[in-house]
Amino acid sequence: MNMFFDTHNHSQFSFDGERTTLEESTSSAIEKGLGGICFTDHCDFYVPQMKADFEPLHNEVFDVAAQQAEADRVAEMVAGGRFGRAAAKKFKVLKGIEIGLEEKSREGITRHLETCRFDQVTASVHYLEDTDPYYGLYYNGKNWKEAYGRYLETILKEIKWLGDRFDIMGHFDYIARYAPYPKESVLYRDFPGLFDEILKFLAENGKAFEINTKTYRTYHMRTPQLDRDILIRFMELGGEAIALGSDSHDPSQVGTKFDYYAQYIKSIGFRRLAHYEGRKLKMVTI
């Protein structure tokens, strides 16, 4: 086992998790030699009405009690040797949430995080300006700099509001996945001021920066790239915690390219990878 944790995974409890279960993804993580997996199912209290043009509007707040009971069941299977003796000794199944940041959701987020307990809270932006970028309408009338910049501005505003109620900032460049522009990647040099504010906030508050490996797959003949300069700047500002997340919705995607990105950040100077247990930061040597 390399002991890396996949900190960003979805299961049957996410609205779009019909392709996997906790048990299947846990099995995949163990087969790939990971040290643990955290299930961060989707929780968005605001869903833009425009989604109804493409799919029925649905509840995107998962059943926390059911998810955590299933995580306990699968963890017991692991501890009981169902997936091998090595996994029984060391592998961990963690309970998380991917909370969707949006100004209209603040009341629901506050109430939810006050009443539920997780190992890890990942904070992400999925919807903005009453649109879902996945379907493309967000980009209409915007050039690449406007589209990417507004997304980063939203992240900055919402993580500052959320404060100590989250652990990992999820997929900062989600907005590039589905963009129509030749400009495939979100780069530090294009938004140095915004990135400095975001990265400084994470570093000063002990939050983790997520490398979301799903973003760096090919979509519509475009392949976004992780900008090395962002990670260098995070280190310069005192940031230490880097988390790897596959954003898997399918067991085959668990831990995608983790060895590559672990070595990538090691080449920059980071020596450990982050995950959270009981909202406490844990670091594993690369």
Tell me what you see in this structure.
The chain is α/β, with parallel strands linked by helices and 286 residues long. Helix content is 34%, strand content 17%. It has a seven-stranded parallel beta sheet with strand order 1-2-3-4-5-6-7. Strands 8-9 form a two-stranded antiparallel ribbon. Helix 5 (144-162) runs parallel beside helix 7 (192-204) and helix 7 (192-204) packs across helix 8 (228-236).
The chain-level mean pLDDT equals 97
Strand order of the largest sheet: 1-2-3-4-5-6-7
- Which consecutive residue ranges, at least 5 long each, have pLDDT under 50? none
Q: What general outline do the C-alpha atoms trace?
A: globular
- Give the biggest sheet: 7 strands, parallel
Topology order in helix (H) and strand (E) letters: EHEHHEHEHEHHEHEHEE
Number of DSSP strands? 9
Proportion of beta-strand residues: 15-25%
Structural class assignment: alpha/beta
Q: What is the terminal separation in angstroms?
A: 12 Å
Helical amount among residues, as a percent range? 25-40%
> What radius of gyration results from the CA coordinates?
18 Å
By DSSP (H or I, 4+ residues per run), the number of helices equals: 9
